[in-house]
Amino acid sequence: MAAGGKNKSIGPDKVAGKILTLGGEAMISCLARLLGVTINKASIPSKWKRATVVPIYKRGDRSLVKNYRPVSLTGVLRANGTRLALYLRQGVRVGGQ
After folding, report:
1. Contact 34, 77 (CB under 8 A)
2. Which residues lie below 8 Å from residue 6, measured CB to CB, with a gap of 6+?
3. 43 in helix, strand or coil?
4. What tens-digit pLDDT sequence spans the chain (97 residues)?
5. Which residues, 6 or more positions from 61, have their beta carbon under 8 angstroms from its beta carbon?
6. How far, CA to CA in Å, does 1 sit from each of 8, 9, 20, 22, 30?
7. What is the CA radius of gyration of the chain?
8. 77 with 48: CB under 8 angstroms?
9. Is 17 exposed, middle or buried (0-12, 13-18, 19+ CB in 10 A)?
10. Which helix (H) or strand (E) holds 26?
11. Is 50:12 a contact under the CB 8 Å cutoff?
């Protein structure tokens, strides 16, 4: 499971993408269980709904707000949980289940 490199920022869930990368295939079954609980409870964890918005400089005068664009940092679990949900929806079995 490729989830973010060493230069990726940590989102509101405080989980580094490198953890998922280092966990490899074992993380898929863990994420699948977490996603299953989320679906069964019909509730999305509050930290999955949050994003940290940071200004990214584009070009021009750095003192002008118009020269920045907003970027939303979402949690690694949110991004990968969504990706896993789409993966499972296609009928692919995960973790030998």
Report:
1. yes
2. 18
3. coil
4. 444 555 667 777 777 778 777 877 777 777 778 877 877 787 777 777 788 899 999 999 999 999 999 998 887 777 776 666 666 666 655 444 4
5. 67
6. 15, 18, 7, 9, 12
7. 16
8. yes
9. buried
10. helix 25-41
11. yes
What stretches of the chain adopt beta strand conformation (E)? 51-57, 68-74
User: CA 87, 92, 93: angle at the middle one, nearest 5?
Assistant: 115
Place of tokens 């079954």: 29
Total Cβ atoms within 10 A of residue 22: 12
Residue 19 neighbours by CB distance under 10 Å = 13
Structure tokens given for 33: 């269980």
pTM recorded for the entire structure: 0.52
- Take residue 68 and report the two structure tokens written for it: 């920045």
Q: Are 35 and 81 in contact (CB under 8 A)?
A: yes
The pLDDT, as a whole number, for residue 65 is: 95
Distance of CA 77 to the CA centre of its chain: 4
